[in-house]
Structure formats: structure tokens, C-alpha cells
Amino acid sequence: SALYYMEKITDFSSDKPTLSIITNECTHSNEDISMYNIPLNGKISNSLDPAYIIHTVTLKQISQFITFLKENNVYDNTRLILVSDHGIGYRGKNFTTEYIGGYSKDHLNPLLMVKDFNAKDEIKIDNKFMTNADVPFLATKGIIKNPVNPFTGNEISEKYKENGVKVTFEELFKTYHSKNQNYFTVPDNSWYTVKDNIFVDSNWTK
Fold it and tell me: pLDDT, tens digit, for every residue of 113-137?
């Protein structure tokens, strides 16, 4: 519903720059999109993979909202960042070896799309090493001089990933998975360092 009502909850009357953060669980739901009659390999949408179906619905709603921004002459004056918390987690066809430690690398390959102010370029794929933790840097770039994390006082930049980033395949996100509210119980052998081109096996080290 958050994506469906985007046009209803958006207003253009502010005379100051604004920041809008909208989160939704659309890609965690199941929808019937047979009415769109989207063909893929000769099949109609209602017989497609559920993940493809819901991602189609999500991107269709986002596209509709972008058109709405253009119609109201604020698209060029807006930086848009679309980011997910994780990848789909299976059929990582771009990876040389799809699994590592019995876990799909694609689960750690989330969506990250950026449209900058006054951008006129065609959509392009950039395989620069990035993570969804780059969002604060992307959001403040060119807007806030020397931005810092208000909670830690640390600089907001891309420096944190110069030597790669540490990741885990443990799905620990419930309170009972942890020793306490500040400590996740991740086994020592479940950590990996990832750097540079994520589709190259040698860039994943235990």
C-alpha cells in the first residue's frame, strides 16, 4: 500500500529541500499480475516465478511514481535512491560459483539504483563495489559538507569498504538468536570478507 499511495502522500508545496524515506514490504508479498499480460519466453505472467511477478509489480509502481514526479516538474530536482535489504538469494547466474558455504551469494547482492539531480543518462549497470550501507553517503553527497553519523560521530564516506566488507550468511535477526539486544551470536566460521568485483570467486575469502 505504501507504493500504491505514493502519489496521495506526496506534496510539492515546500519551499525548502526535503528528505523522504519510504520503506515497504511489497517484495515480501504475493500478487497476481495476470491482468498485465506480460510475456516472458512465450508464457504469460500468471505462470511465472513468484519472485519475478512481485518484482514486476514493485517496479511498475515505482515507474508510475517517477512519471508522477515528472508531470509535477520535480523529477530533475530530485535524487532518487532505490535500495533493498538483500538479494533474492537463489539462481545467482552472474556468479562463477553460485554458492559459498552452502549459501547463495546472490542473497548478499541487493538492489541499489540511483538517479541523481538533473541526470539525463540512459539506465546503466555499474559493477563498482558497493553495498546498501552506501546509501547515507549517496544521500548526502554534494548536499552536506563533511557529513558525520549523528549517532557515532563517524565520517560518512565510502572509506569503510577500501579493504572489503565483512559479511555473514547467518540469518540472525530475531531476539532469541542473540545473547542480548546488542550481540548477535554468529559462529566464527560464518564470516567472509568480500571486495572488488563480487562475481569473482577469489574476492570472497573466509
Answer: 999 999 998 999 998 999 999 999 9
Reported for 7-13, long-range contacts at CB under 8 A and 24+ positions apart, including other chains, are: 7/64, 7/65, 7/68, 10/65, 10/68, 12/72, 12/74
Residue type, 125: I
Report the alpha-carbon distance of residue 13 to residue 24 in Å, rounded. 25
State the residue for C-alpha cell 547515507.
136
CB 71 within 8 A of CB 112: no
pLDDT of residue 34: 64
pTM metric for this prediction: 0.84
Q: Measure Cα distances from 21 to 6, 63, 79, 81, 124 in Å.
A: 12, 17, 12, 9, 24
Q: Cα separation of 77 and 119, whole Å?
A: 9
